[in-house]
Write a structure and sequence with these properties.
Shape: globular
Distance between the termini: 5 Å
Number of strands: 11
Strand content: 25-35%
Radius of gyration: 18 Å
Helix content: 25-40%
Largest sheet: 6 strands, antiparallel
Structural class: alpha+beta
Number of helices: 3
Length: about 190
C-alpha cells in the first residue's frame, strides 16, 4: 500500500487503498468520496477492513453525529475556512515554482542510476513540467468554475503551507482532489 505524505507537514493525507485515478496530465489524484454521518468518537474502518459483527454495539445512538465526507473523516482532514476563490487562485499561482521544483526533484531522483544523458533528463523534466502546467491549469479552471461546490481541506496540523485536499461536488459526483507533486509516496 502507498501512503501519500504531505512534503511540508509530513502528515499522511490519503492512501492508495481507496480507489482513485491520476488525471489532468498526471497532476491530480482524484478520489471518489461520499457524504455520511460521522462522530468524532467512533472507530474508523479503513478501506478493505472487514469489521466483525460481534464488535458492533448499538450504544452510540445518543452521540452527536455530523455530516462529513467519508475520506475527510477517515483521514482526519480539517476544513480550510480561509480558502476563498481568490485565495485558491493565489495558492496555485504562488505555489507553482515550488510544485515544479518537486517534479524536477522526483525526476532527477528516478534517473539517478540510469544511463540517460543530462540532456535527456532535462528534456524529460521540461516535458513533465509542461504537461503538469497544462493539467493544473485545466483542473484549477474546473475548480474556479464550480467554486460554489468546492470545499478545501488540510491536515489536522492546520499548517497553511501544507498541501490541500480539494472537494468538488458536481454532475460527475463527489470527489476529493490532491495535487500529486505535493506528496511523497511511502510504501507500507
Amino acid at each position: 500500500m502507498k501512503v501519500y505524505i504531505d512534503r511540508v507537514t509530513n502528515a499522511d493525507h490519503i492512501t492508495d487503498a481507496y480507489p482513485h485515478t491520476i488525471e489532468f496530465g498526471g497532476a491530480i489524484m482524484k478520489f471518489p468520496c461520499k457524504w455520511g454521518m460521522f462522530s468524532d468518537n467512533e472507530d474508523i474502518v479503513l478501506a478493505g477492513e472487514n469489521p466483525s459483527a460481534e464488535g458492533e454495539d448499538g450504544g452510540a445512538g445518543d452521540e452527536t453525529r455530523e455530516r462529513r465526507i467519508d475520506l475527510v473523516h477517515m483521514n482526519g482532514l480539517c476544513e480550510c475556512d480561509f480558502m476563498t476563490k481568490g485565495a485558491f487562485k493565489e495558492w496555485i499561482k504562488e505555489g507553482r515554482s515550488e510544485m515544479e521544483g518537486y517534479i524536477k526533484k522526483d525526476i532527477l531522483a528516478a534517473n539517478e542510476y540510469t544511463k540517460k544523458s543530462q540532456e535527456e533528463i532535462d528534456a524529460e523534466v521540461d516535458a513533465s513540467i509542461k504537461a503538469w502546467r497544462k493539467g493544473i491549469q485545466e483542473w484549477a479552471g474546473m475548480g474556479v468554475k464550480s467554486w460554489k461546490n468546492v470545499i478545501c481541506y488540510f491536515d489536522k496540523n492546520m499548517d497553511c503551507d501544507g498541501a490541500k485536499a480539494i472537494y468538488i461536488g458536481d454532475e460527475n459526483g463527489d470527489n476529493l482532489y490532491f495535487v500529486k507533486c505535493l506528496y511523497r509516496e511511502d510504501k507500507q
